[in-house]
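Hi all, a correction to my earlier message: I attached the wrong file for BTB/POZ domain-containing protein 3. Here's the right sequence:
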Amino acid sequence: ILMVDEKGKNMKCLTFFLMLPETVKNRSKKSSKKGSSSSSSGSKLPPVCYEIITLKTKKKKKMAADIFPRKKPANTNTTAVQQYHQQNLNNNNTIPAPNWQGLYPTIRERNAVMFNNDLMADVHFVVGPPGGTQRLPGHKYVLAVGSSVFHAMFYGELAEDKDEIRIPDVEPAAFLAMLKYIYCDEIDLAADTVLATLYAAKKYIVPHLARACVNFLETSLSAKNACVLLSQSCLFEEPDLTQRCWEVIDAQAELALKSEGFCDIDFQTLESILRRETLNAKEIVVFEAALNWAEVECQRQELTATIENKRKVLGKALYLIRIPTMALDDFANGAAQSGILTLNETNDIFLWYTAAKKPELQFVSKPRKGLVPQRCHRFQSCAYRSNQWRYRGRCDSIQFAVDKRVFIAGFGLYGSSCGSAEYSAKIELKRQGVILGQNLSKYFSDGSSNTFPVWFEYPVQIEPDTFYTASVILDGNELSYFGQEGMTEVQCGKVTVQFQCSSDSTNGTGVQGGQIPELIFYA
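and the right structure:
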């Protein structure tokens, strides 16, 4: 019997009922002896056996996850599901209720129940250094599927049949984060454990988790942690992260050098920073940062932080500090009185500043190149009129967004249209109402239509695809130049900048015209 029913996209299986002929013949002979009544029913004898054959279609099979996308268990089972999730976190070895598998429609969810669960565990890990260990259960098959290292450990030619494996060089929280990814296909990272998780992912060759850790670090990168992450990125051989760290350190060098994380770097990273040609910092700041590092390094080596020991731990790195390029006041009031230099070195450097015939120095005497700031000009022309542009304490403001990470160093502003004049400028940079940078300074305009730079104390890091608000309140000559024919989008080198009007602007500045003609930035 062939039964086919096709309707739309749904096709029922094709079923063949096969009846064995010899068996039917034998049954017919036996039934003929029972009379006509029984013989009349012989044609309705059921088959002795049958076989079901399913026709394979060319349609793609649907997995459970496709049929039940992100489907949550029914309300009646919510409490049970929460109990299992809590069990995973606490590893309390609770015996699951019968048919717990029925609570989860997909294999991914059922597999996740095994995360940090002693149920069916065939291996245990003692993770962490002595005194801070944690015993965690595992399932060899799941681990081997998620990591080639675990596969070699459990199923390779040199596999060891151990019920307990000690891992002293990985933090328990980081190991759990890796297991959660392997079992649950979930990435759960935190700022205080991401580096340890990256180490675990590298050690056990879990590349997608390692990439997620690097992305997390890149998005959370700032001047406060750039030096530490530079050290770690070199250790983990992550060149992209290394490049991002250098971008931050170069542009925000003084903030990075003054951060607590700078004192935690290793000696090789210290040397690479002191050698850096594009370091955008005063040399006295570099000198003071090196002394701070030396003091902490003495503690790490269990040495008294004396002048002699500081110089000892710095070693040849001291000569990478470009002391002869300091301002004379910075040297006389700082480095010369620090005690870190010998008397001969101090005398020679003073002669370097003053004498026509300069002595030879072990220190690098060539100034660092630093970074060259870029300027994004948003107006195509400027003008002045007898009744514009006036200030009187009102705010000129514009919003902007970039497509790449940059560091805003300051703004270019118009000056007086009635001869030379001095202005007092309060500049601000905000994101969603939060002030990221501000400064109060003065600038002198010579009466031309040129722009005049006003700088923040430190460059401000700007993330891509987010609008920031640039504002200025000017006090000075009320009549000044102003921009016209403003552009909503400007290409500046490899950076695209978009502009839009700001509700903070109370003095008429907008996209089409007004003040703040330039953004000055490092990229």
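Sorry for the mix-up. The domain at 374-522 is CATH 2.60.120.820 (Jelly Rolls).
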